[in-house]
Fold:
Amino acid sequence: MSVIEKVSSASIIDLENKYGAHNYHPLPVVLSRGEGVYVWDVEGKKYYDFLSAYSAVNQGHCHPKIVDAMMKQAQTLTLTSRAFYNDQLGPYEEYLTKYFGFDKVLPMNTGAEAVETALKLCRKWAYEVKGIAEHQAQIIVCDGNFHGRTTTIISFSNDDNARKNFGPYTEGFIKIPYDSIEALEQVLQSSKNIAGFLVEPIQGEAGVYVPADDYMMRAKALCNQYNVLFIADEVQTGIARTGSLLAVCGNCNCESHCEKQATYASPDILILGKALSGGAYPVSAVLANDNIMNVIKPGQHGSTFGGNPIAAAVAVAALEVVREERLAENANRLGKIFRAELGKYIETSNIATLVRGKGLLNAVVINDTEESDTAWNICMALRDNGLLAKPTHGNIIRFAPPLVMNDEQLLDCVSIIIKTLKQFEK
Ligand SMILES: *Cc1c(COP(=O)(O)O)cnc(C)c1O
Structure:
């Protein structure tokens, strides 16, 4: 196809339908350009992006500093594998570990790979440090979790769609209700074979469920008490999205995961992905201190692309942007305005019942059943009105714009969302 030939959205959608596996159900809009908080479709229509690629594009689309770092590195050295050293990985590892306050990092590419890495690390620690008998280690997970799509991870999902007919499943996981300290304590008391507790500080995919303010802190304290690793999956919530550098930092809105916060809920294992690259490149990471990370020896885990020079250069730039542009503080401030403005509307509305969230990870609950297509139809109308968002589950719409948004843009978006919801009032 020649580059000057005009392509229509419909013809591109047809190609995906015909030649691509149908493992997603995208909103029918075909994007061809992005800049900051905006994306454009192939017909040239401009939209506010309120998904940010599931919070990968926190720094905004095509951030010039991140693109620049990627271009420079792509022209210099792209991949060596870990069979040799490359000159980008060491400096990146120093930068990342100091940024988040851990001794070491294990670099991977996708979020699911990083979760797998954390699970393997946790099990190995359990056998070699804690002293659990081989094959007996159990890891606690939460109802409604989303940690990715590998065979092991979907083994402990309770989303039937994600699980059904993908068995046999990986053993060694115990599910408890989310946001229940009592349930966590009960399982910890009941078995000597618990190796870790894997948890999302806010359940994003499940519908942006925000637990009690002290849940992370109390869960961490219990894990300490029982010598169990507290594993935070911050793939979606981390890197300024919820108004602090990490969601486990709670209500502290400073720009670093600092000493003060370590007394709150500093994880034993921290899992990052998505915005670690600002959406430019797949980059994920597992962070831990030496007493845990040192159980992994050469040959025991790895990835051809993990820690490659482009990933390293891109991630440093992406993290610098978060600090330089004070994205955590911005997300915190704009999130409060977003929930306040939508909250006011919802009081008078019969189509939306609730707005919840933290920072710029928010959701609006639509007044209809989980099986209804009202939330989907609202997202179609939002698209027509110039704003892109998607339902998480059934009747819940997630609103997560890039964190580089300004006040004026946010208020513009609030009025688009309210105008659209009003079209659906009964
Ligand atoms: C997106 C996500 C993952 C998986 O990341 P991928 O890069 O899609 O594999 C894991 N955990 C959480 C909380 C996520 O939101």
